[in-house]
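Q: What would this chain look like folded?
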Amino acid sequence: MLEKTFDPKAAEGRIYAQWEASGVFAPKTEGAEGAYSIVIPPPNVTGSLHIGHALNNTLQDILARYHRMRGKSVLWLPGTDHAGIATQMVVERQLAAAGNVGRRDMGREAFIEKVWEWKAESGGTIVQQLRRLGASCDWSRERFTLDEGLNAAVRKVFVQLHRDGLIYRDKRLVNWDPQFQTAISDLEVEQREVEGAYWHFAYPLADGVTFEYPVAFDDEGKATEFETRDFIVVATTRPETMLGDTGVAVHPDDERYQGLVGKSVILPITGRRIPIVADDYADPTKGSGAVKITPAHDFNDFGVGKRAGFQALNVLDAFARITTADTPDIPAEYDGMDRFAARKAIVARAEEEGWLREIEKTRHVVPHGDRSGVVIEPWLTDQWYVDAHTLAQPALKAVETGDTVFEPKSYEKIYFEWLRNIEPWCISRQLWWGHRIPAWYDADGNIYVAETEAEAVAQAGGKALTQDEDVLDTWFSSALWPFSTMGWPEKTEDLERFYPTSDLVTAADIIFFWVARMMMMGLHFMDEVPFKRVIINGLVRDEKGQKMSKSKGNVIDPLVIIDELGADPLRFTMAILSGTRDIKLSKQRIEGYRNFGTKLWNAARFSEMNEAVRVEGFDPATVEQTINRWVRGELTKAERAVSEAVEGGRFDDAASALYKFVWNVFCDWYLELAKPVFNGADEAAKAETRAMTAWTLDQTLKLLHPVMPFITEELWAELGKDGAPREEATLIGAAWPVLPDSFIDSEAEAEIGWLVDLVGEVRGLRAEMNVPPGAKPPLTFVAPDAVTSDRATRHRDLILTLARVSDVASADAAPAGAVTFVSGGSAAALSLAGIIDLTAEKARLTNQISAFESDIGHVMKKLGNPNFVERAAPAVIDEQRAKLAEAEAGKARLEAALARLADLG
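A: My prediction, written as structure tokens:
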């Protein structure tokens, strides 16, 4: 006998261990009906399971379990990313906490050894946590982006791309983290809004040049007054960078400055003569319309500088201190000064010398390192780059022609926009933990790129060489993930069977950092796309649509949820909410879907108590009872809906179809309709219904298993102890139910559908009219046709019980004091005279309608306010519109109920 409740704490670990020990996670080697493969987006080795991981890996696991049950050879390949900067930071902090020397004092080899020690002790945390979620990865194939095989693949790719002219060294701007002393990717930059200022500086014009600057305008915007100026005003939020200015830009159509184009200014402090140029980058509507150009310290300025031929002068060193190495005209007093100290000093000097014209306080966005927390500097430095533009062309074409598709398709726009405007990809990082760049230098600075040092020495003719100190961007090795993890560059059986992969499930924010780069590398090295479909999952937010953060205290920890409620409710919630870009999640929603699991468990207990067990040789095609033919058809439709939804990557639709069938059809209606049969005297009907219940429950567990694997596996095992033996010992290894169209019985569907609709109408009326739960008003069919009369007679007992009515009768007209309604095309009446207080009910409904009207007016006032609509976040506006629709529907429903009461007198 089943326990009263399902205990996930006791069951989940035991069940997962059984799955893993059975080898079922590995791909089938024989008898498979095709192949299905998916590679996990490798989480950082430093990571711990967060709610985004829970969503992403739940969706992947649904796909893997579904296709496994469809008989395919399924490879879900797991692994972790070495996470260069994150891992190095963790180990450095540990060393500092233990009072050890820093990594630079320790030396590279000793430090790397410490990182490997940390990885062996703590690097597997997230892998174990994925098991708790139920992830059915083939752990025997687990990879790590720094393992020996992937190291070899990375070196080969680097060398080949270099030979092809697609990897090169160049001096360009990068996001520079002064604390970690490394370039970082855009994804590692966090844009923070901070208090700041625009400092307006007057740069004096050279050679005694003056111009007339407009200071007053008429109503049409035409200048009416001018002042003679011998300076041009520029504004900056980073005064320290002025030391690197090599030009000033104005818009070519800005009449104020057209006479100054080609002239020069004298840069304060340095005395440097810099030209004024016309460039579309300058915006006449912002500030003075003139902008200072610092090519070495601003990404936009770098572009202007290239177009204008300006020199790029580095005035900051790797620690973000002022350096005069490139700029001897900077006074020595600034050399070595911290950037923020230099800012204060320059502003003070500008004020003292009179060229500070204004300080305009503002809030503006400043880039920070997401891990270091320090302000990031655009910095000009020598780095290694990939010619991403060339590699992007086949990747663009592959999506344009449909070789790879995005679900939802709208995300293709992000992919196209990035690839069509792609910049060179900086792939070098000034770290120690990572794939060391396979490039060596001789004493003269000549570069030798090779897979091994021996090959490089041979290229250099035996010269002594020094290897490049830098490592590769973590995303470089991740870009090879779909094929390197399967053994490339060797021609392996896995590559032959599983590449290209079937699906990739990932988040929108790494479409360009990871998805596009995998496409580029896969096509270049494999001549095939790395995956046929990219499924983009949404972003999990809190119940109000706010981004989760520790500072807000609104983070939902999936491990805490699993401890409290089990993995299945979390997984079901992730699936059913997955159809939106912003998933609003609350613990209460997860608790609601725990109740769904409880409902299923109780249904299984009810079935067991009524001796519903599998029967040897039972064939659902032969059932005769109307309710059994009906539930067989409903199950078939549910199977179709779930299969089509999972195949289409619409996990929310799949979960919704499961919820509707399990809760509404099977539990609420079928088992209720089966009760009189179980308690009746017709033994044949009883035996058929018991067998049908057991068979339906088995098929239901199969359909639900990919989404809620633990509770379904436990029920499969427990219910398997009684009745005829099953072919499949475990549910994870069971075959997906594929039911024939002939199982849908239109006659049974029409008859039970009529009964369900009738009972639903009566229940709805009882609720609307506030009929006491214990009251049983009589039900009358008004002038029914023969079909309705037959159905009413046939299902009389069920109507009495399920609708809670005292009688089921027929009459030519509705009785006095009855509320009429239409169900299934037939008129019916529910006699409420003497059961409800008409005056009190009318007053109650009127008050509730007034409350709805008040809500509607309040929301419409908000939505009708242009200021609110312009300033409010889209999620807030959507929430208000949903409130309005809900209130209008509620008002209409109560007005209909009030109209019915009016008919009673």
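The longest helix spans residues 874-904.
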